[in-house]
Amino acid sequence: MNTRAIGGSRVNPVGLGTMNVAWAYGNPPTRQDAVALFRHALDNGCDHFDTANMYGLGVSEEILGEAIADRRNEFFLATKTGIVVEGPDRGIDCRPTSIAASIDASLRRLKTDHVDLFYMHRFDPKVPIADSVGAMARLIEAGKIGGYGASEWSAAHIREAHEVHPMIAVQHEYSLWTRNVELGVLDTTRELGIAMVAFSPVARGALAGGVDTAALTERDLRRTHPRFLPGNWEHNRALVASFNALAAEAGIAPAQLSMAWILAQGDHVHAIPGTRSTAHFDENNATAALIVADDVLDRAGALINQQTVRGHRYPDAARATVDTEDFV
């Protein structure tokens, strides 16, 4: 299988996002099933696992540590800091002291002495970029992290941070129906030699066989996301049906078509779909080996894009925390 670079490492272009084993979409799996999923993924060629300290308040990290820490040299490990969901400091926090404390807590949960990549999960306007990046540089010097990255940062702030200390990865939501990175981040990362890691590459499940909004559980994040709400979802569901038909015509799964389109946007682009299912993992994992005709990718891009989809990608509260360039 072809690999792609993140810093000085080469990994499979399709990794595994681990948020939904602990939080966000539907009911999480049992701990036993989550452990089995991670071990299955590692056994079947996944070598890029992505987590964060806020996923289930550390539960995702703990499960990863339990499942595969004994095989630490077989995979690239990324986690994140900077979003505080409880207590008096609730909000965005990328102060140097917070970054230093956060990595130590993550390493304990992950049962390892280092991670390969440590992201600032959101941009913190209260802290000078040089201060936050300086804290990351000190963690690199200490051997606790291999490199640092940022999630949902603007192109200008990525450039500013990169000048202080080279950044190895940027993570953003990127899919056929979320194209914000095309306003600057995609070109900036390509120019600077930074990996662009796409989260939610199958549009929060919409481009992975569809989503039944009536069946979403009470705490499912999509119940608050405009694209899944009445008035928008009916229109978007029709687009999804046409997309599913295109995937069937090409002889591949909808999720595979969605990620094949993502990976075709640049050799520096990676995808980290999340799943609770080993069968869905196998389907996603097979994407990098597929050859999808350019005309099929072009038709997918023309069918589902920022102009054809209705509704913003985030509700107002979440939208306010994002630094990425946005469409008017």
TrEMBL record:
Which molecular function GO terms apply here?
Answer: oxidoreductase activity
The name this protein carries in UniProt is Aldo/keto reductase
One GO cellular component from the entry?
Answer: cytoplasm
Give the organism, scientific name. Answer: Croceicoccus ponticola
Q: Which InterPro entries match?
A: Aldo-Keto_reductase, NAD(P)_OxRdtase_dom_sf, NADP_OxRdtase_dom
Q: Record's Gene3D superfamilies?
A: NADP-dependent oxidoreductase domain (3.20.20.100)
- Tell me where on the tree of life, at the top rank, the source sits: Bacteria
* Domain NADP-dependent oxidoreductase: start-end pairs: 14-292
Taxonomic classification: Bacteria, Pseudomonadati, Pseudomonadota, Alphaproteobacteria, Sphingomonadales
Keywords assigned by UniProt? Oxidoreductase
